[in-house]
Design brief:
Endonuclease, Chain A; alpha+beta; 16-stranded mixed β-sheet
């Protein structure tokens, strides 16, 4: 078994209805009046092994302390429960093993099951599976209704090796990967055109005149001709569709004007009209962010009863042994932000990416220096023509980003997170909450048989407190054997250094490649970028490669000057690929705050064929080499090929800048990145 983080829990769907059962709707059936414990005598106990979402685990193997089978119950996993302490351990392919102890006290009362960690005294000295692989996962005993002939049931869950147990249930979805804003927004425009009931957008920044579609003749079109392709015009063309836009609010309570800096009047006006089927909320993140000290998150146990009853309404009359932990109260201090960048359409399609509805967040896969479509909406036609004629640079530089389209249950998972945000905002948190109506509930779409396994993970502030993005990253890093490829706006996530260290030690063939961008001396997090790079160099040596992206135009003429043009590329992607089977992409940057308290959302895809295709396309595009076997090459081969291409490009760049004969033209976008050794601001690891 691979090692991975111990996380929270599991819940259940009954695979053995004839012998097993559930819980009460409040999750506190184990207490009497005033919270006093209730004594439950249990003679027989059935065991059901599930995943963290309450679904039966196929091929699960069950071990136990010496107990007799209760064959008369008709269940293959039913046991006579003796006095004292008994233990159960379960394992299955693709999951980490778990173990629990069950105790009958001196009065014959069964107590709440105890999840066991490696080294627990309740386990035998030599268990039949590697004890170090144990992941403590909460378990529950449920008692049948009074008078029922069914046995009580111990539900115990296993932690998935890759998917985050604290995230949404993984399911099959039709999935498409986009390598640029041009691709993603063109697909989104097609889906919006056929929206029937609902459209929701969450973004960190909104510009109503952001153009989703930019045809080849775009530079020749007037503002009026381009307006129908804008985000606002497309939404307004759907009068019968219920539209909602969620935008993050910047420190609105401490600096009033900042609350409006990332929206415009056209959007805010929609909030006031109750008859336009268009609602808006500008929502703050109330997390208090320490400038120097580490951020200490509130730990939230997984809502076992909620998941169990949601999957099994027939268990309403069953009773929990024990009680659930109450959710912690909200500390209402505004800081941080909601950074999610997602769209949902009719609860059937979702787009998850790092792209805002903002002028800078559009580019093609070519990232051309002279791209006239990379202009602000208000730019006059003569300025666009000058860029097309290579006589001027566009308003906005090259931008690298990525995202996915998911069709299936993942859209419902995205909708559920947005719905929770919306309803919380309606409670008084958000600007314009008084005009907002209840968020509609969409049905969960069926899993398409041609889909790939995917999951929606999130980081959310209190009162939600989800950190499944962190769990997914930790599992992926610790499972990596050959390659970890990271493409991100930031590279300052020291909280993951222990996970990198563990994986590098366990897998000598592992290679780590990071593509990011330089950090300004005035950036408060430069220290942690330097620290991250230094630590990885010490841990991995030449098994680690740090790169940046640039764009070269060898035939450029700009402002009347001729000669090659080299420009830095704004790497805005938030993407991780592990080996040839795991991909995550979305809004979460590689910084501690994106894992701990910033409002983020990512998609996780676990499918070798899909990830291999993404690897081939992504690596071919960024390297400029479409002959190398990027989809199948081992991590060491990928790293050495990218290292050599980057060194060749750097040699060509230095020669061109020195007006010396160049050994050749740059190929692709990869260049080495060397960080400074000093920083100006000394801030804590979680602030930026």
């Amino acid at each position: 078994m691979r090692t991975s983080t111990a996380l929270m829990v599991a819940v259940v769907m009954l695979p053995l209805w004839g012998a097993c059962g559930g819980t009460d709707s409040g999750g506190n059936g184990g207490s009497g009046p005033g919270g006093s414990p209730v004594c439950h005598h249990v003679d027989d106990l059935s065991v059901v092994v599930t995943d963290a979402w309450g679904r039966p685990v196929v091929g699960a193997a069950l071990l136990h302390s010496q107990m007799e089978a209760c064959d008369d119950r008709g269940s293959p996993d039913c046991f006579r429960l003796p006095d004292g302490i008994s233990w159960f351990a379960a394992s299955a392919p693709g999951y980490r093993p778990a173990a629990v102890a069950v105790e009958q006290d001196s009065d014959g009362c069964v107590l709440s099951p105890i999840s066991l960690a490696p080294g627990s005294e309740q386990l035998p000295a030599q268990p039949a599976f590697p004890e170090d692989d144990l992941v403590p996962m909460p378990a529950e005993i449920l008692l049948p209704p009074s008078g029922s002939a069914e046995a009580p049931v111990l539900f115990m869950a296993l932690s998935h090796e890759w998917f985050a147990d604290s995230g949404s249930p993984p399911a099959l979805n039709r999935t498409e990967f986009f390598l640029s804003g041009e691709e993603l927004y063109a697909s989104l425009a097609d889906d919006l055109a056929v929206a029937a009931k609902t459209v929701t957008c969450a973004t960190w920044w909104w510009q109503s005149d952001f153009e989703l579609l930019r045809p080849p003749n775009h530079p020749l079109l007037s503002e009026q001709e381009r307006w129908p392709n804008t985000a606002m015009a497309i939404l307004l063309s759907l009068p019968a569709v219920s539209k909602r836009v969620l935008v993050g609010r910047f420190t609105g309570e401490t600096a009033t004007g900042m609350a409006y800096v990332n929206t415009d009047t056209l959007l805010r006006q929609r909030a006031y009209d109750p008859g336009d089927n268009f609602e808006v909320m500008i929502q703050g993140n109330p997390t208090p962010v320490p400038l120097h000290d580490p951020f200490v998150p509130i730990e939230h146990p997984m809502p076992y009863a909620h998941r169990l009853l949601g999957n099994n309404p027939d268990l309403d009359e069953w009773t929990f042994v024990g009680t659930e932990t109450a959710q912690s109260p909200l500390v209402a201090v505004e800081a941080a932000s909601w950074h999610q960048k997602v769209w949902t359409i009719d609860g059937r399609v979702a787009y998850v990416s790092g792209m805002n509805v903002k002028s800078s967040d559009w580019d093609t896969t070519q990232h051309a220096v002279f791209e006239p479509r990379r202009m602000k909406y208000i730019s006059p036609a003569e300025d666009r023509k000058a860029v097309a004629d290579r006589l001027a640079f566009p308003d906005l530089g090259p931008r690298k980003d990525a995202g996915v389209r998911l069709e299936g249950p993942a859209a419902h998972a995205v909708d559920s997170i947005l719905g929770a945000r919306w309803e919380w905002g309606r409670g008084g948190d958000a600007l314009f909450h008084e005009y907002a109506t209840a968020y509609p509930t969409a049905a969960v779409a069926d899993e398409p048989p041609d889909g790939v396994p995917a999951q929606i993970v999130a980081t959310t502030p209190e009162p939600f407190g989800e950190r499944s993005i962190l769990e997914a990253h930790r599992k992926a890093i610790r499972n990596a054997e050959s390659l970890i490829y990271i493409e991100d706006q930031y590279w300052r996530i020291p909280m993951l250094l222990p996970d990198f260290a563990q994986s590098l030690q366990a897998h000598p063939g592992l290679r780590i490649i990071v593509v990011t961008k330089p950090v300004s001396l005035a950036d408060g997090a430069l220290r942690w970028t330097i620290e991250m790079d230094r630590e990885l160099k010490e841990l991995a040596g030449d098994r680690y490669l740090l790169l940046q992206a640039r764009v070269a135009d060898m035939d450029g003429t700009a402002d009347g000057e001729s000669g090659p043009v080299l420009q830095p590329m704004d790497v805005h992607t938030k993407l991780v690929i592990v080996d040839d089977r795991f991909l995550t992409v979305g809004s979460a940057n590689k910084n501690n705050r994106g894992m701990l308290y910033e409002g983020e959302m990512n998609a996780v895809i676990l499918d070798p064929q899909f990830v291999a295709q993404v690897r081939a396309r992504l690596f071919s595009n960024i390297s400029g080499d479409d002959q190398f076997p990027w989809a199948t090459a081992a991590g060491g081969e990928v790293l050495e090929r990218m290292r050599q291409l980057a060194l060749n490009n750097e040699e060509a760049r230095l020669a061109l800048e020195a007006a010396s004969p160049a050994p050749g033209s740059p190929v692709g976008f990869l260049y080495p990145l060397e960080l400074p050794s000093q920083y100006l601001l000394d801030c804590g690891p979680d602030a930026f």
